[in-house]
Design a protein that fits this description.
With 354 residues, the protein is of the alpha+beta class. It has a domain of 95 residues: Uridine Diphospho-n-acetylenolpyruvylglucosamine Reductase, domain 3. The two termini are 36 Å apart. Bound molecules: flavin-adenine dinucleotide.
Length: 354
């Protein structure tokens, strides 16, 4: 991903990629949707891809775009990696670089102040997303970026969060960067990067939370409770404000993703894992926790969906949760291009436990 960001910047254009450096730009990230800080207004990777070059299971090297192999092109835009062919290359839409304003908040956590803090994005994130803000948040930290407003406008819009964070002896920083690339290098791929030990088994679960949940007082309260319950259970809750909500207002859906993607505000996630050498009992305990988190978000956001790239690996009803009404057509395309089932992977299109 880093190389794509750098290459685009070198040519004075913006590549709207994912949040971190280590994932591939034209592999699994793109094939299952691919969100990033700017997805809210610019669309997901799958919205912005113009063409794939691939080898199909029968050994042909072909191109898929809106004119050639259009059904396959649709399926590759969100239908997932490892199912339809081996991608050799992809052509991504880019655009002129734009100055970007950031809002970075953090404060020392005390439990109570985290709950109060999470009520702020539950209350405001739909409006913030519709004004162009995107990025990750957790219970005592948020990093948002917006290419459409200046720092004075940002200070007004973010006033409730700035005041709260300052009242908790935290830091609220509104900054202007010359380009999104500068923001990405300094913040997303700079100060926010955390290393993780090798051989730790990491998992997460995700739920896209529809905007209707942000328009209902009861659901807003339940969302905050759920985030705090997840934290109390030992998992790490993150909400990713990276859904194509604003983009979906202007563009009809052209991808194979679950339609809830274009009507959602948050990707709510819970992360955790087990250390090397964990016993079977410890692993089962952890998988139970993760499933509990999955279930709790599903109960609150029944109209939402789950992101296949960041999903509970033990999710039941995975085809419907990942692709909804699009799964049937995706399976048709899979059977057309791969009638012998040469390609298969866990919870991918056509995966069959039997
Ligand atoms: C640290 C970290 C940060 C992340 N941040 C984000 C983020 O900001 N936004 C986001 O949307 N997701 C994010 N993810 C999730 C990420 O999208 C998935 O992990 C995704 O599967 C990565 O794809 P990959 O090609 O890099 O990985 P791989 O594990 O190599 O591939 C994933 C799947 O895609 C298939 N695949 C890969 N390449 C090809 C190809 N050329 N042709 C056909 N199939 C292929 C593989 O067979 C496999 O099934 C993150 C993950 C991690 C670990």
């Amino acid at each position: 991903m880093d190389e794509a960001y750098l290459f685009a910047h070198y040519h004075g254009v913006l590549f709207a990629g994912g949040t971190v450096t280590t994932i591939g730009a034209s592999g699994g990230w793109l094939l299952n949707g691919g969100h990033g800080v700017l997805s809210g207004s610019l669309g997901l990777g799958a919205d912005r891809v113009l063409q794939f070059g691939l080898v199909t299971p029968d050994g042909r090297e072909i191109i898929a775009n809106q004119c050639q192999n259009a059904r396959l092109f649709w399926a590759l835009r969100g239908g997932g990696g490892g199912a339809f062919g081996v991608i050799l290359n992809a052509t991504h839409l880019v655009q002129a670089e734009m100055p970007t304003t950031s809002a970075i908040f953090s404060f020392p956590a005390s439990g109570d102040n985290e709950r109060t803090y999470m009520a702020l994005p539950a209350e405001n994130m739909r409006d913030w997303a519709l004004a162009g803000w995107g990025g990750p948040s957790t219970t005592n930290m948020t990093a948002l970026a917006n290419p459409y407003i200046n720092t004075s406008q940002a200070e007004i819009m973010m006033a409730p969060a700035i005041h709260f964070v300052q009242s908790q002896n935290g830091t609220a920083l509104i900054q202007r960067f010359r380009s999104y690339f500068d923001y990405y290098v300094t913040i997303m791929n700079g100060s926010l990067v955390a290393s993780e030990a090798t051989s730790v088994a990491s998992f997460l679960t995700s739920r896209l939370i529809p905007e209707t949940a942000f328009q209902n007082e009861t659901t807003k309260g339940l969302m905050v409770d759920n985030i705090m319950n997840i934290k109390a259970s030992g998992l790490v809750p993150w909400v990713l404000n990276t859904t194509p909500l604003l983009y979906g207002r202007a563009q009809p859906q052209q991808t194979a993703l679950h339609p809830a993607w274009y009507k959602s505000v948050w990707i709510s996630t819970a992360q955790g894992g087990w250390r090397p050498g964990a016993s079977l009992h410890e692993r089962k305990l952890f998988s139970g926790l993760l499933r509990q988190a999955t279930q709790s978000w599903m109960t609150i956001a029944t109209e939402g969906c789950s992101y296949a790239n960041e999903a509970d690996p033990w999710m039941e009803d995975w085809a419907d949760q990942f692709w909804g009404e699009n799964y049937a057509k995706l399976l048709e395309v899979k059977n057309e291009v791969d009638p012998d089932g040469l390609l298969g992977c866990w919870h991918c299109i056509g995966w069959d436990a039997s």
